[in-house]
Please model this.
Amino acid sequence: MESGKVSVGTVLLALLGGAVVGAAAALLYAPQSGRRTRQRLREFGGDAGDCARDLLSKTEEYLEEARQKTERCLEDAMNKTEQCLEDARSKGEEWLHKGHGCAVEKRQQAAEAAQASR
Model:
């Protein structure tokens, strides 16, 4: 990772961690019994785990979709590049044949002119 850049995963992890710590602190300072607080912490931990699993699943889906799109774009770019190269090769051969034909014609004209001047 380049200096000064933060990945999306790091930001999401920091947000999730901050939410967990903030919620736990709120529960610990709430005016209720210790048993109820512990129960709520377990519930919240389960909810946070579910949330994290959902986030991971969605992130995996997003990354797979991005990989597939990138793969399609690369394939399209390669196909277009191959087509451009084939077009350029074909055009180059066409110009080469035209140039050769022109050179033969000019050489013949020069030979005829030389013959006529004798």
About this structure: The helical segments are 8-29, 34-116. The first helix runs from residue 8 to 29. The chain has one domain: 8-116.
